[in-house]
Structure prediction request, 450 residues.
Amino acid sequence: MEILNQISASLQEGDTAAVAKLTGQAVKQKLAPKEILDRGLIAGMNVVGQKFKSHEIFLPDVLLAAKAMYAGMDVLKPLMTGESLPTMGTVVIGTVHGDLHDIGKNLVAIMLRGAGFEVIDLGKDVPPERFVDEAEKNSAQVIGMSALLTTTMPVMEKVVELAKDRGIYGKTKIIVGGAPLSADYAEEIGADAYCFDGISAVERVKDLTGAK
Amino acid sequence: MMRKIADIPVEKINPSIEKVLKGQGIPDQVKANKRTIDLARKALSSFMVLARPSAVTMEITGDQFKPIYAGEGLNADDTPLDDIIERADSFALFAVTIGETICAEIGRLFESGDYAQGAMLDSTASEGTELLANQVEQSHREYLLKKNRLASSHSTCQFSPGYCGWHVSAQKKLFQTLRPEEIGISLNDSFLMEPLKSISGAIIVGEREIFVFEDDFEFCVECRTRSCRDRIRAVKEK
Ligand code: B1M
Prediction:
């Protein structure tokens, strides 16, 4: 469908106005919102992710594309009366208690949303209980935690323990990221995955949830 | 004992566009596209308006520095500083910040959906904070020169808790002595400073050769920056 290709191409260009306009046109052409989302917006964002991975484009291009993606989603949202946009799954994300570094976490949240996941961003300095409470309340498939200091990393283990106590461990997957972390550390505390950056977070979350 | 608080003119810590782009993951050899350059230029202009560079420094003796370095007893077993401290001539603690205003603006940009501009300003602010710490080191060197306390074979080098095996928790004792709260920097229970764009550390003075070490310590494997290489290179040039 030509219009969907145009949406995808404009999104890759980070052209917010064009994506909003084209999405509106696609709606007028009576295309289903889910089709516009999957084959226009998400398809475009997937190309962006691939190009970022192969260093053809860089962070600013990805973030401009994400903004354009949200502009398209804003056009689609009111059409889904009574229900929200179909998502690939729900991720509860935050920077752990004691830590206020949130740029990395914000970037990961933006990329997950761009890939079609619903992201519930708890912000920074998040106590362990809140991660688990919100995951239960929203039936989240994934809890994502970020930490930038070695001194705040142990909070992640507390969340894993709490998830075990509440019986959601295993069912709700746990991913961790941040500069001082490693795959070894993630394994040691019982997290399901360590993610180096936003793109790897999208890949790992897709793997863990079986989302395509 | 000298303790000095200074507001530093923002013009002295003007980040280069190349460094800002590097902070965005764009390698030196890649030519950034026009819209990225525009984002960077805008971030640099905002930085000049919003950054409030402020610093506190304090000269201390080697005997005073040792317990600060030992911190909460969590340093790595073998660190380059163990040796450097024994051979150094003098020590000064420092803390710098570019203030809360710019951090708030980064948050605002993200909240308003201007992610690319927000991330660019974040990289600019990080680079500006690094330059501020370098500027403070430079001022300290000028002070020592004026007092005839820096021989030509000697130089200065910066170290910060959280780097080179010096545990981040050592900031607790550093703060107790230096009191950076006076310039608006606080330390929380996780040893995180607020405002976020702040750096704490020590400027160590000694013969150039004492600062040269290999990056083959156990903790180097985990280090994401290897910034010691640049610092050692700079010591040789200073
Ligand atoms: C949920 O799933 C996921 C999945 C992926 C996830 C995720 C969650 N969360 C993150 N990710 C991942 O995806 C994101 C997007 O790609 C990434 O998020 P990041 O947040 O990592 O990436 C950001 C987008 C860009 N990255 C950054 O902004 C951090 C880069 C590095 C070089 C860095 C910088 C720039 C700064 N710093 Co500092 N700094 C370092 C960093 C080393 C490094 N190379 O990472 C680190 C974090 N710093 C460190 C230190 C020690 C410090 N810093 C300090 C200061 C600074 C600057 C001000 C100079 C500056 C800005 C800090 C800031 N973030 O605002 C001090 C603390 C500041 C404070 N407020 O308390 C100070 C304590 C030094 C001092 N004594 O002053 C180290 C921490 C080590 C430790 N022991 O805890 C450090 C790892 C460097 C090192 N030694 O290797 C990934 O990590």
Observations:
- Chain B has a mean pLDDT of 95.
